[in-house]
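Q: My labmate handed me this sequence with no annotations at all. I'd like to see what the chain might look like in three dimensions before we decide whether it's worth expressing. Could you predict it?
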Amino acid sequence: MRTRTRRAVDRFNACVLRRPGYRAAEGRAAGTIARYGRVDLLCIDELGYMELDRHGAELLFQVLTEREETNSVAIASNESFSGWAKTFTDPRLCAAIVDRLTFGGNIIETGTDSYRLAHAHQKNLAMAAD
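A: Here is what I predict for the chain of 130 residues:
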């Protein structure tokens, strides 16, 4: 199975920035949509932590639309859908992205406890006991 994992903010904001060595935004966006449309499973990590600019959010929407009902998408986020309004500053675009992800999808909630925080806490307890 072909998979690809990327941090949401890095990938989608970077695709629309005009920096030396980057192709024009339109060509880069089309290439990104095609590239992420081909993999069997697209994993997007840390969605909801940092704001996506308007173009980055639109690109993510296009990628999700391209994959809709054909390929799988896995999103990792500690933020609830209601908190995504901070990531996607356009409420209509935010609602459309949530709609694309939830229609026919499975939502797995693992709780709000941080694994890293719990691990550090247990480590500190073990060190204190020694």
